[in-house]
Write a structure and sequence with these properties.
Blueprint (H helix, E strand, L loop, with lengths): L31 H10 L2 H5 L18 H19 L3 H10 L8 H11 L8 H12 L13 H9 L9 H10 L9 H25 L4 H4 L3 H13 L5 H31 L4 H6 L9 H19 L5 H20 L14 H13 L3 H11 L10
Keywords: Hydrolase
Pfam families: HD, HD_assoc
Family: Belongs to the dGTPase family. Type 2 subfamily.
């Protein structure tokens, strides 16, 4: 069952783009949201995600996720959900593909280090930096900076985790330019994209963690949610190999989460009597979400992953070294901005220079950050594994 048709975002009703785009070349058959998606896919920032950490730094196996493959998996899940609910698939896909563009090298470890070094200039946040990338730093067009995405895509990137009471530096600047109505909820497409991200990394990080031998299957199966699926798989295929059983577990858990999300979202929309996109934005709570029971199980799953994977002792040396690399680079460039490439000598004043430094470092891939550290500061001692 799809939702009332007036709930879906419609490209024909878009609030438009910050910069007018007169026809100066062939446009083809794409609508506004399809062009947004394609601009994201063709961006430099999107290509760099192939060398940015998801869980494991510069993974030594071809089968581990990186930010790029994670973003593609989020987009697949998000588009499936949007289709089932009758939402706009292209806007959902664009938001899924763009949600991690602002990550610096080494994932959250790098983000924490960069935020610490830039506290005097407003800090660093990967969500805010995503907006800065698509609005200013990407420069593929002759008439303006940024990708000039539609209002609806920018709104979704800004508010996919809900209304924003106190926007940080980057988001505040974008809001001042385009008026994102930060106090309201985003479209259902944006809400779906956010939950698709959770579904993807909850389950795919299990796959990578077990493959690497960092996450213990016994610890995972202490969770009733995982144990139920594991036992059901064992009953269906009693002779299945461990490797295939893990793959089935990941697949079945995703299916359960998606199914619950579809049922609960339809229930919330019907209960709220919402029939238009404006009513979605004005709702008292998000309309896309898990049921209360599954939301509790998903929180327990996240808690297990933080305790047994993200904060596992085996990964701590990697995290510490990654933070040292990013912190050292930030301090070196802040102390002597002349070390930045010529193209990054764009501003004067401590805070403006700090933002240039943040922009430059955040754009680095894991291997490039290591190379720059070795050239400017000294060796990087990441463990051979992880």
């Amino acid at each position: 069952m799809t939702l009332p048709p007036g709930i879906a975002a419609r490209p024909a009703d878009s609030r438009g783009r910050l910069h007018a785009e007169p026809d100066q070349g062939p446009r083809g058959p794409r609508d506004a949201f399809q062009r947004d998606r394609d601009r994201i896919v063709h961006s430099i920032a999107f290509r760099r995600l192939r060398h940015k950490t998801q869980v494991f730094v510069a993974p030594d196996g071809d089968h581990y996720r990186v930010r790029l493959t994670h973003s593609l998996e989020v987009a697949q899940i998000g588009r499936t959900i949007a289709r089932a609910l009758g939402l706009n698939e292209d806007l959902t896909e664009a938001l899924c593909l763009a949600h991690d563009l602002g990550h610096p090298p080494f994932g959250h470890a790098g983000e924490d280090a960069l935020d610490d070094e830039l506290r005097f200039a407003g800090g660093f946040d990967h969500n805010g930096h995503t907006l800065r990338l698509v609005c200013a730093l990407e420069t593929p067009y002759p008439d303006f900076d940024g990708l000039n995405l539609t209002w609806e895509t920018l709104e979704g990137l800004a508010k996919h985790n809900g209304p924003v009471a106190a926007p940080e530096w980057a988001l505040a600047g974008v809001d001042a330019a385009v008026g994102l109505e930060l106090g309201s909820h985003a479209s259902l497409e944006a809400q779906v994209a956010a939950i698709a991200d959770d579904i993807a990394y909850d389950n795919h990080d299990i796959d990578d963690g077990l493959r690497a031998g960092v996450l213990s299957l016994d610890a995972l199966l202490e969770l009733p949610f995982a144990a139920r699926h594991w036992d059901a798989i064992g009953r269906r295929w009693p002779d299945l190999s461990l490797d295939r059983k893990v793959k089935a577990l990941v697949r079945d858990q995703i299916g359960t989460m998606v199914g619950d999300l579809l049922t609960e979202t339809r229930r919330r929309v019907a209960e709220a009597g919402v029939e238009t996109l404006a009513e979605v934005r004005a709702a008292e709570r998000p309309l896309a979400g898990f049921s209360e029971a599954l939301a509790g199980e998903e929180r327990a799953l996240k808690k297990c992953l933080y305790a047994n994977l993200y904060n596992a002792p085996a990964l701590q040396p990697v995290r510490v070294e990654a933070q040292r690399v990013v912190g050292n680079l930030a301090r070196a460039y802040l102390a002597d901005p002349r070390l930045l490439p010529d193209a990054w000598h764009r501003s004067e004043g401590d805070e403006a220079v700090a933002r240039n430094v943040a922009d430059y470092i955040a754009g680095m891939t894991d291997p490039f950050a290591i190379t720059r550290h070795e050239a400017l500061i000294g060796p990087v001692e990441l463990p051979e594994k992880f």
